[in-house]
Amino acid sequence: PQQKFERIELLPPYVFAEVNRFKAELRAKGKDIIDFGMGNPDSPTPAHIVKKLTETVQNPDTHRYSMSKGIPGLRKAISGYYKRRWDVDINPETEAVVTIGSKEGLVNMANAISSKDSTILVPDPCYPIHEFGYVLAGAKVHSLPKFTGVPFYNQVKEAIEGSKTKPLAVILNYPCNPTAETADLAFYEEMVALCKHYGVWILSDLAYCEIYFDEPTPSIMQVKGAKDIAVEFTTMSKTYSMPGWRVGFCVGNQKLIYALTRIKSYVDYGAFTPIQVASAYALNGPQDCVDGFRKLYKERRDVLIEGLNKAGWKVEAPKAGMFVWAKIPEKFRAMGSLEFSKKLMEEAEVAVAPGIGFGKYGDEYVRIALIENKQRTRQATRNIKKFLQG
């Protein structure tokens, strides 16, 4: 058959696939590529969480279908986490749903709430699924150049007031992937007031909330009345170094939570029960492992930033998250982020993520993930220095 698949045709060529192909070629030639490309945590999951998983899996009752909205114990654990961390009350029955990683939750939320007439306001650059979850759901996406705080608030306000049909929702993501920008509680308060006034939903992605280096990250749920119009996605992936376990959550507005739960009841039976039991154990148990990961990322950030600046690549230290969003050095900027990334890989043996992969406004940047140890990071900055001065 010759017909095209329309939904698939809507997706641009996956930039990261091209980078990965090039990386594989260079490695096949014997090059030792130091890889900062994917935000894939390299630390093992803490032993007490793994132990709980292996204990639970011995019980054959846990091998049956699970619950698509998440087992009650895990929904209670996320409710307890919100209370401890932000003093926010979340009803585990009506205001929380467990997702198979936050990515699945974001996609199924898009499917749950969108129609072909829906418009979603999405920052650019953004984590690709924030945009393409809605593209795949058949909605229209209105991209807003990503500047945090007041400028971003103003863009959202202009987009709402200037559109013929009211946007359905706006996506927020702080600490941001890829830009590492952060937001304070005052920003969330203004966004809630604005979106409440115009009746626009807010979908907040808080995946990196526990990787902060100075002030703890706020949650939009701390804002009075946020639950009237907002939901928030969080995940176990980065906080507990559990990326492959695929466990996330969505909490907040009951109507949106119900819509997501309803869609999920048709498409999945939830994550494997032992994984959910171990996740509840992680949330309820000792949190020193979270402090340890935070310290690890901070050390890597400091080594990378110091090394890049010494190499002549002026980059600011992010306040949170596991990425450095670096503006391409001026003499290479015109070639764009994909070609620069390939050049960096070929000549400095360092892999990064091209900014164009996160949106058209990202093309003057690359994203560097803090996923290599300090020794390898130092080696990478030495290689970069040679490359830049060559």
**Sheet with the most strands: spatial strand order:** 2-8-7-6-5-3-4
How confident is the prediction overall: mean pLDDT?
A: 94
Largest sheet: 7 strands, mixed
Secondary-structure-derived class: alpha/beta
What Rg do the Cα atoms give?
21 Å
- Between the first and last Cα atoms, what is the distance in angstroms? 52 Å
**How many individual β-strands?**
12
Q: Strand fraction band?
A: 5-15%
Which descriptor suits the 3D outline? globular
> What is the chain-wise order of helices and strands?
HHEHHEHEHEHEHEEHEHHHEHHEEEH
Number of helices: 15
Helix content: 40-55%
Low-confidence segments, given as residue ranges, are none
Q: What does this 3D model show about the protein?
A:
The protein has 390 residues and is an alpha/beta fold. It has helices at residues 6-9, 15-28, 47-57, 72-86, 101-113, 128-136, 149-162, 185-198, 236-239, 254-267, 273-284, 288-310, 330-333, 336-348, 374-389; strands at residues 34-35, 96-99, 119-124, 140-145, 169-173, 201-205, 230-235, 248-252, 323-327, 350-351, 353-354, 365-369. The strands form three sheets. A seven-stranded mixed sheet has the order 2-8-7-6-5-3-4, sandwiched between helices. A three-stranded antiparallel sheet has the order 9-12-11. Helix 6 (128-136) links the parallel strand 3 and strand 4 (140-145). Helix 4 packs parallel to helix 11 (273-284) and helix 12 runs parallel beside helix 15 (374-389). The radius of gyration is 21 Å and the shape is globular. The relative contact order is 0.17. The mean pLDDT is 94.
